[in-house]
Amino acid sequence: MTRGNDPAQYRTLRVALLGAGAVGSQVASLLLRHGDELADRAGARLELAGIAVRDLDAARDVELPRELLTTDAENLILGSDIVIELMGGIEPARTQLLAALNSGADVVTANKALLATHGPELFDAADRVGASVHYEAAAAGAIPIIRPLRDSLAGDRVVRIMGIVNGTTNYILDRMDTEGADFDDVLADAQRLGYAEADPTADVEGYDAAQKAAILASLAFHTTVPLETVHREGITGISAGMIQQASDAGYVIKLLAVCERITVDSVESISVRVYPALVARSHPLASVHGANNAVFVEAEAAGSLMFYGAGAGGVQTASAVLGDVVSAARRHIAGGVGVGESTRANLPIVPIAHVTTRYQITLEVEDQPGVLARVAGILSEGDVSVATVVQSAEGEGTARLVIGTHRATEAALSATVERLAASDVVDRVIAVLRVEGE
Ligand code: NAP
Is 231 helix (H, G, I), strand (E, B) or coil? Predict the structure, then answer.
């Protein structure tokens, strides 16, 4: 006997879609076009009951049946089995998803801003009624990373995640690296081509990556990670000169989201941080080009795993959303309690000062005998041990020192850099960058 579904026996599930923008319009189109296939995979017919938008007459990326559009999201949610939220922003998304969950609907969302700030509230609401919240598209777009962390690696212990989770900044840094271009010029180009928003702050200052880091770390370490505990630095201070110098030393600069299990004072803890860092050209993350994303996961038993692909894009992201819709439909059909979030580990989240990495410090110094010894002395007094030094003539009477350090704590490093900056042999601290992945 074969295991097959009899289409005639399928239950029909009512699906409400909130939002028909870049992602929502593609989700609607795929739901309408691939209804039969999706029904076979989900074991239920997915009936798109309506699409909530702000403006019924707005131009859409794909043509959608006019009769499905509504401005009354509250009414559309009532009686729905699955609610897909693709509006973005905190409100009204939060209130409407809570209403959906409280009515027993399963929820699918791609809203990283909402999950990073109100995730626990949504997960608690889902737990109370046994429903589930699916959010594969909220981190790294089309790349399957949420399900691997939540399900495939549930029996393992994740040690570290290093992710390139923001396509805009990767596009900018990659072009700076390959063309020697300046940040401002590439940003202007990225805005013209639609890779960067008119207001690029969320991307270039690392806010978007920090939201994704909070989501990934919560899942990986079974611990609620509030957004405000994520250390965040953007890429606006990265110059063409820094990129060139990194390249000369065999590195590429990437904006990384790093989520790490670390032991501080014998207490198992986690660190979650976003900053531009040096990555060796031989590391798999160094070959992530353009607006692509990649997430490098290290787990105790599985070893190193790399997830790579499109981190954004309407139709690409819609693929991840529809995968979630099928999962939600299967749960609805099977009944029982949905997969909840596991936050039982409840590990402490340590501030950046406790984090240990290697650094590259670039200084402009006076070109005189004894300067190198003075600099080395300040580093050693500060418990920062030197691994490599490259000296080059900078200009009249000045030299450039590029110092690679062994692992040191952030606290020791920043105190030492302050002392270097204040010393009479250092004219200028040109750059301090962390080295990751070594
Ligand atoms: P978008 O293009 O700005 O579309 C937003 C849609 O939501 C529009 O159709 C808008 O209606 C509707 N909307 C907004 N506020 C509403 C309200 N109060 N009531 C009813 N409808 C409302 O956004 P998007 O790029 O598709 O992104 C959607 C979500 O996916 C966001 O959370 C985003 O972070 C996430 N995401 C996007 C991407 C991507 O590549 N775009 C990738 C990963 C995740 P009108 O059309 O009438 O204005």
Answer: strand
Active site amino acids: 212
Q: Would you state the pLDDT for residue 1?
A: 35
Q: Under 8 Å CB-to-CB from 204, ≥6 apart: which residues? A: 168, 169, 172, 187, 196, 234, 235, 236
Q: Which amino acid is at 310?
A: A
Least confident of 51-55, 174-178, 231-235, 393-397: 393-397
Planar angle of CA 429, 256, 267, nearest 5 degrees: 90
Q: Tokens for 103? A: 């009515």
Give the residues surrounding ligand 1 with Cβ less than 6 Å away. Answer: 19-24, 52-55, 58, 73, 86-88, 92, 110-112, 137, 141, 312-314, 317
Query: What does the DSSP 8-state code read for residue 355?
Result: -
Atom number in ligand 1 closest to CA 71: 20
Residue 393: predicted pLDDT: 87
Q: Is pLDDT of 282 > 80?
A: yes
Per-residue model confidence as pLDDT tens digits over 15-64: 999 999 999 999 999 999 999 999 999 999 999 999 999 999 999 999 99
Q: Distance, CA 22 to ligand 1 centroid (Å)?
A: 7
Distance from C-alpha of 151 to C-alpha of 354, rounded to nearest angstrom:
30
Q: How far apart are CA 126 and CA 211, in angstroms?
A: 21
The reported pLDDT for the residue numbered 258 is 98
Segment (H or E) for 73: helix 73-77
Q: Whose CA is nearest to atom 36 of ligand 1?
A: 110
Q: Kindly give the number of the ligand 1 atom that is closest to the alpha carbon of 312.
A: 40
pLDDT reading at 3 higher than 80: no
Domains of the chain are 8-142+315-334 (3.40.50.720), 146-311 (3.30.360.10), 355-436 (3.30.70.260)
What average pLDDT does the structure give for the chain?
95
Backbone angles phi, psi at 88, to 5 degrees: 85, 170
The Å distance, Cα 361 to ligand 1 centre, comes to 42
The answer to whether 307 and 295 have CB atoms below 8 angstroms apart is yes
Q: Look up residue 376 and give its amino acid.
A: A
pTM comes to 0.96
CA distances from 254 to 134, 162, 166, 210 (A): 29, 11, 10, 14
